[in-house]
Amino acid sequence: PIDCVGFQSHLTNTAPADYQTNLQRFANLGVDVQITELDIAGSTQASAYDTVTRACLAVSRCTGITVWGIRDSDSWRTGQNPLLFDSSGNKKAAYTATLNALNS
């Protein structure tokens, strides 16, 4: 049996408009969903991390978010800076947006 479906989410600027809807569609089938391999590049990165985090929180069967790396310098998306911490390990606006969404 399938117990969980993971959504690999290598995004640029925004989450797809139907992102939360798609999470919910799978949850409605009776499986847990998780956002896996999350990294978001682009100028609206912080907003996109907020959107994805809130989408997971809105779906009761969304049981986890896994960010695909820690520092931008460790990312497989060289030069795109898609993670929550810059290459020096400093928190980025995307980190704060994600934390704020989790705490809301």
Detailed description of the structure:
By secondary structure, the chain is α/β, with parallel strands linked by helices. Helix content is 34%, strand content 24%. It contains three helices and three strands. Helix 2 links the parallel strand 2 and strand 3. It is globular. The chain starts with a strand and ends with a helix.
Poorly predicted regions are: none
> What class would the helix/strand composition place it in?
alpha/beta
Q: How is the biggest beta sheet arranged? A: 3 strands, parallel
Lateral strand order in the biggest sheet? 1-2-3
* Structural Rg: 14 Å
Total helices: the number is: 3
Strand content: 15-25%
Span of the ends, CA to CA: 34 Å
Instruction: Give the rounded overall mean pLDDT.
Output: 96
Helix content: 25-40%
List how many beta strands DSSP finds. 3
Principal-axes shape call: globular
Helix/strand order: EHEHEH
What is the oligomer described by this structure?
single chain
